[in-house]
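Consider this pair:
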Amino acid sequence: MTIRISPSILSADFANLERELHRIETADLVHVDVMDNHFVPNLTLGLPIVQRLQEVSPVPLDVHLMITDADTQAPKYAETGASSVTFHFEAATDPVATAAAIRSNGARAAVAVKPGTPVTQVLHHLDAYDMILFMTVEPGFGGQSFMPEVMPKLADARAAVDASGLDVWLEVDGGIAVDTVPEAVRSGADTLVAGSAVYGGEPAQRIADLRAAATAARA
């Protein structure tokens, strides 16, 4: 199982985002949180900034939409050239159709679930998605503590993905650091979002530390 590290620029210096992107060149992806102050009580980046980040980023964009009206908006973010676009299951009226629209615009289609949202309906349509994102904090703010109670849900998804033979990535987002990586990886995560755990120090070293923790957890 390949482990991917996706640093979140929510913890980066917003006044110098191009520089901050180049500080994580050793990462596999860059996690771009889009919040609209409606679906979550915070406001961050929007479509024009994502378009510009796509033009200058040395690593593929992993866009996470924490916004309402995902059915309409998600395909527009796929049009930017982002590698992956994640929308929230709770914000879509037709998640399968929304995922198909993302794919048709050239991006990997991903669906996110909040800590309290069952993953059952997502697993019933595994072939519709390229990734499932498990929020291990309540969405909307960085710096929260990891919620281990989400791990059984993640483990269920890992079992379903492995049984299906499909190439569906399982991503965790929230409270991910060297000390929480082992539990997430052992529960089935293969894509790790980390904000302050990367940007809170020297990013290349922090990314290497996360990889080492993930490798050790798989041993």
The mean pLDDT is 96. The first helix runs from residue 17 to 22. Residues 151 and 187 are 6 Å apart (CA to CA).
